């Protein structure tokens, strides 16, 4: 029989990581343990103070911008990868775990150990049991942010956790998948282990019992937890009640429930922001390993797999929910020996009952039974699978529109070239709109607007697969679209004097499709935030013109700094072919305005030579 492998991780490596994770569990006084062989294993101990789990009400989360250590090293102007590009929103993570991670990084030699392993070209595996797993997750993200650079040859890290609580929110998981980092995370969860479910509950609902439960779980000896049935039962009930609310709300969304009552109820009930990330391996017993990658499905499994079969089981299941947290070494030993692995994929086709399983689904159906999944639970898993399938279908539909987008952009490129022949850039030609070609260009602009607004709305609602945002072909197409079409939107905005009622284009009138596609490029190329604003050139020109015209005669000082800044950027954009030379044509609004500027300024301008060549 061949050796067992899950993802990139061999069964032997899983055993080693579990061993060192439990060793760290017994050594809470140390910031981490290191085991060196062909790989470098770094394991973190758990923390058993309530304050290290919940630093504040109700769920203890914080936006990760409060942690400079999770931003790219040496460049705080570049946004962290842990963000939603479409909504321009940062991910959240548990503040207590994040604070502890920062303290370990600042006060220990962790970074030295990591950089030594990198220098020796060894694979690094971060691991931990219980909340030590949460620290391993954050350390892995830190490693990916700081060291895994495009074009840089580096061994990818691994993160293997055992009974880890959840760490980040939906955006946290979304970003890991988009960056193609999700496969680096592998989490083992015993069927009834309560710890991976704890942060689905608020502090106000579990606070009274949590301190006692953490003390029980902190014990170093691997023996069954006894004598605390009442606390365990109360704690289990509270956590599962909260988990039920979170799972039910998520399932309603997956099933397309648009009833406004759903949002009304959600506004009154505090729901945990935490969501699973990476690959989960559930251990239901009987020597089986059930592997799940779909985060929506994992969330449902965290609730449904730990359900009671009857009220009479409450005390036994509650006690097991604590015992399971300490049972990973023995359970994994049996699982890895049996090598009985079931992959839960193609979720949309899962059988709804034991009798409904097709011949090819027998192993899957047995696994679902081992997890104790009811018909309702299976329906929720199906919904997760259908949602994932729909996202792939949406992506295919958008890919099919690429040709239409390319054709529209080609038409506008032709319009741009024809306008240049008349010594008037296409911006000014469109702003005046006197001829049939201008009308046709506007029709094409509106057609492209419809397509891109649909794409941006789907991204904003997370209706496309996460890797879509990291696709180079779409980033390049979006940039091409923005550079050609946004100047026409700006021309249309100022032609109709919308600035007089609404305000300047940049602050009040810029459509979301351009803001997003700009952020998309900046994120994809790891550029400083706001540095790819070349398509907004004409908006700044229009505002400078308005200021110059309304200022006192000769009051160039009012716009001097903005003009110098614009000229500097324009020179860079022209040299890097981000803006074409038609802005310098004799009939260009920009050229006509620029030649009226004071001669002292023009004589030292970086664009003087380029304008002189065109006129």
From TrEMBL:
Chain ranges of the Fungal lipase-type domain: 90-199
Membrane spanning stretches: none
Molecular function (Gene Ontology), one example: hydrolase activity
GO BP annotations listed: lipid metabolic process; systemic acquired resistance, salicylic acid mediated signaling pathway
Location in or out of the cell: Cytoplasm; Nucleus
Keywords assigned: Cytoplasm, Hydrolase, Nucleus, Plant defense
Example of a GO cellular component annotation carried by this entry: nucleus
EDS1 EP domain boundaries: 410-606
InterPro entries, alphabetized: AB_hydrolase_fold, EDS1-like, EDS1_EP, Fungal_lipase-type
Protein's name according to its UniProt entry: Protein EDS1L
Taxonomic source organism: Gossypium hirsutum
Gene name of the record: LOC107946860
């Amino acid at each position: 029989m061949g050796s067992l492998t899950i993802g990139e991780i061999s069964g032997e490596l899983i055993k080693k990581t579990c061993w060192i994770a439990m060793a760290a569990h017994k050594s809470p006084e140390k910031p981490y343990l290191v085991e060196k062989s062909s790989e470098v294993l770094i394991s973190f101990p758990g923390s058993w103070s309530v304050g290290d789990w919940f630093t504040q009400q109700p769920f203890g989360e914080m936006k990760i911008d409060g942690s400079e250590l999770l931003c790219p090293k040496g460049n705080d102007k570049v946004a962290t990868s842990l963000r939603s590009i479409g909504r321009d929103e940062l991910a959240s993570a548990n503040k207590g775990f994040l604070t502890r991670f920062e303290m370990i990084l600042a006060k220990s030699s962790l970074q030295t150990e990591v950089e030594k392993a990198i220098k020796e070209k060894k694979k690094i595996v971060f691991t931990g049991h219980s909340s030590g797993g949460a620290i391993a997750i954050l350390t892995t993200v830190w490693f990916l942010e700081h060291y895994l650079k495009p074009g840089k040859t580096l061994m990818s890290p691994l993160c293997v956790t055992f009974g880890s609580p959840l760490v980040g929110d939906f955006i946290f998981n979304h970003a890991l998948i988009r960056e193609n980092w999700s496969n680096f995370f592998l989490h083992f969860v015993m069927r009834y282990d309560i710890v991976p479910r704890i942060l689905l509950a608020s502090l106000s609902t579990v606070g009274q019992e949590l301190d006692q439960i953490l003390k029980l779980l902190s014990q170093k000896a691997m023996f069954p937890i006894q004598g605390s049935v009442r606390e365990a039962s109360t704690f289990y009930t509270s956590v599962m009640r909260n988990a039920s609310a979170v799972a039910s709300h998520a399932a309603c969304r997956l099933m397309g429930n648009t009833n406004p009552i759903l949002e009304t109820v959600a506004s009154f009930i505090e729901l945990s922001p935490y969501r699973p990330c990476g690959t989960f391996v559930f251990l239901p017993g009987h020597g089986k390993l059930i592997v799940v990658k779909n985060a929506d499905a994992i969330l449902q499994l965290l609730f449904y797999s730990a359900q009671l079969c009857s009220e009479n089981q409450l005390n036994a299941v509650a006690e097991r929910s604590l015992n399971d947290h300490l049972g990973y070494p023995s359970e994994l030993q049996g699982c890895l020996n049996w090598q009985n692995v079931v992959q839960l994929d193609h979720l949309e086709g899962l059988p709804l009952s034991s009798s409904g399983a097709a011949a090819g689904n027998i192993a899957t159906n047995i696994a679902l039974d081992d997890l104790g999944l009811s018909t309702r639970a299976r329906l929720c898993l199906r919904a997760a699978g259908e949602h994932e399938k729909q996202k792939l279908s949406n992506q295919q539909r958008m890919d099919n529109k690429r040709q239409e987008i390319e054709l529209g952009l080609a038409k506008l490129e032709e319009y741009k070239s024809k306008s240049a022949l008349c010594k008037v850039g296409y911006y000014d030609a469109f702003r005046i709109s006197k001829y049939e070609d201008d009308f046709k260009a506007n029709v094409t602009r509106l057609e492209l607007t419809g397509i891109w607004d649909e794409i941006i709305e789907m991204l904003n609602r997370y209706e496309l697969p996460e890797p879509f945002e990291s696709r180079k072909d779409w980033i390049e197409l979006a940039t091409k679209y923005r550079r050609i079409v946004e100047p026409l939107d700006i021309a249309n905005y100022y032609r109709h004097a919308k600035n007089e009622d609404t305000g300047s284009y940049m602050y009040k009138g810029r459509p979301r499709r351009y803001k997003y596609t700009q952020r998309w490029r900046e994120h994809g190329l790891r550029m400083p935030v706001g540095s790819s604003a070349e398509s907004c050139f004409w908006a700044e020109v229009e505002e400078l013109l308005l200021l110059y015209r309304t200022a006192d005669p000769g009051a160039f000082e009012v716009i001097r700094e903005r003009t110098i800044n614009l000229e500097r950027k324009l020179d860079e954009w022209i040299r890097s072919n981000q803006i074409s030379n038609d802005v310098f044509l004799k009939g260009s609004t920009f050229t006509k305005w620029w030649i009226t500027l004071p001669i002292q300024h023009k004589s030292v301008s970086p664009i003087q030579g380029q304008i002189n060549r065109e006129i």
